[in-house]
Design goal:
The chain is an all-beta fold and about 200 residues long. It contains 1 helix and 11 strands, in the order H-E-E-E-E-E-E-E-E-E-E-E.
Length: about 200
């Protein structure tokens, strides 16, 4: 996600099932017909109990400091049910000391009926106070079909670098965990790293 998968780095949360990889997958990077536009397409052949799969991704970087991406893929159908569709949209930009990003990941299972669906929306804003000090805030919301409440995650972090030493601190909060209104969790993290 744009905020860096806060849910996965801090709290116990079950993510949407990822697409199934296959050794017969082919990936093409298509020629650029528009300046700044990168296009990739992949194809996975059919195999026992599963249809063939086609996925594609578009990334546009033709605007200085900005990047816009769109991707779509599926896992193909199986004998007993339709396959799963995954759609990802992301945009980011940087202007001076400020950078921002947002993303939407949509996961649907069960064909057009979308009998099981999850959506992750996320954003992050960062500000470089100086060459050594930066502050960022990120947020994620997870919506799941059949649940009454959306899980919400947020994180504020600070990082300071001097020489080869980087010190970081963050506070992360989660609300409505496990589809229960009012449940809250909070975590603090402190990091120290060296570069030689």
């Amino acid at each position: 996600t744009a905020a860096g998968d806060i849910w996965n780095n801090t709290f116990t949360y079950t993510a949407p099932t990822s697409a199934i990889g296959d050794e017969k997958t082919l990936l093409w990077a298509l020629p650029s017909f528009v300046d700044g536009l990168d296009t990739k397409v992949s194809y996975t052949g059919a195999r026992a109990g599963r249809d063939s799969e086609i996925s594609y991704a578009l990334t546009y970087t033709g605007i200085e400091g900005a990047s816009i991406s769109y991707g779509f893929g599926n896992t193909g159908g199986v004998d007993s049910s339709e396959g799963s569709d995954v759609t990802v949209m992301k945009a980011s930009f940087a202007f001076g000391p400020v950078s921002a990003a947002m993303s939407i990941n949509d996961y649907g299972k069960g064909g057009q009926g979308n009998t099981s669906a999850q959506e992750q929306s996320s954003y992050k804003v960062s500000y470089s106070v100086s060459d050594d000090l930066s502050i960022s805030y990120g947020s994620e919301t997870h919506e799941t079909t059949g649940q009454s409440f959306d899980e919400e995650f947020s994180q504020i972090s600070v990082a300071y670098t001097t020489g080869g030493l980087t010190i970081s601190a963050s506070q992360t909060e989660a609300e409505n965990m496990n589809d229960t209104s009012g449940t809250e969790q909070s975590l603090w993290n402190l990091g120290l790293s060296f570069a030689f």
